[in-house]
């Protein structure tokens, strides 16, 4: 066990780092296409409700566990409830590790697209031609791995710096840059000819488009965009000081994460409508459809480069938090140095990412349960492991800790907690039902 626990250097550093943990490809890449595929405005309203009444409570629960114990996920549950509950923490560490094995691959694609946009690769091409370029790129046995390696090195480099000097310092630079790029791109998008139709689609709800899948998708998106159930918030909470106002700071983190998702929608959907393309294009909206939008836009190359830089920053801040989950486990539980833990874990993650990348091309005929390595890893983490982890965290804090959890939120004994009863009610009943829905949707949806 480490003798001295690192802590965040400042409240703002914690907020920027935690918001960076939550902000990732799920916000900038996934949220816009989920909104586009589920009716726009109605999905947005349901999503915001899920974040407010569901996501915030779980963020507070993870942060409370981390700050109370000042330990990694495994050690935190063991300290509060004994060795049997430490399995929940172990699940979080394993989830973070597996996610990173394919996350570094997809994040490498974002770096590649920065280069492609700078080289004007998509100039004059339509969506079908862009799709061919994307397919050829991800099918290559070497090129995607080079970009994945570059991303992995950057991720390891930030974590090697430690909590205050590495993660916090990088977040203080990267997160403001991310917001500036988002605002600039959103302004450009909403001022394009014909963008009004996309704005109306995104902000004006059409309840006739709402289905059970819309509700399930909104719950799932709220859950995953906040990095819940994988130990990231718990780990970052373990570096908090007892003097920090946890409910206030958690609300700031959730608010910033949600703002990024909302701005990402304003970047992508008005631009897609302006170009006369289909907003429900699904996961291909970013890598196959958007290059065609930028190609038709005045100064499109510049804005295209800015967008994929934005996407890479979002991926990096989120990946750093996932690697920190793994590193904190090996430092706390196994006594490894940060250098060995970060470098070793990063190397193993990249090695596992090799077959994940090859599964998009030369190993495309190799499947697990009918899925490619990437799709299977994504399914197991997002549809099984994360929801199960989140379910146990909600039940643990809501029922096992109960009133003790309310005390864990306080920065001083006299602090008033007027909504504590509502918070526990959500953790005991609302969150488990929402997470159960995610599990059912994942297996049978």
UniProtKB/TrEMBL annotation:
Pfam families: SNF (PF00209). CDD domains: SLC6sbd_Tyt1-Like (cd10336). It is a multi-pass membrane protein. Its main location: membrane. Keywords: Membrane, Symport, Transmembrane, Transmembrane helix, Transport. InterPro entries: Na/ntran_symport (IPR000175), SNS_sf (IPR037272), YocR/YhdH-like (IPR047218). It is found in: Membrane. The chain crosses the membrane at residues 12-29, 41-65, 85-116, 145-165, 177-203, 215-239, 251-277, 297-327, 339-359, 379-401, 422-444. Belongs to the sodium:neurotransmitter symporter (SNF) (TC 2.A.22) family. This is Transporter. It comes from Salinisphaera dokdonensis CL-ES53.
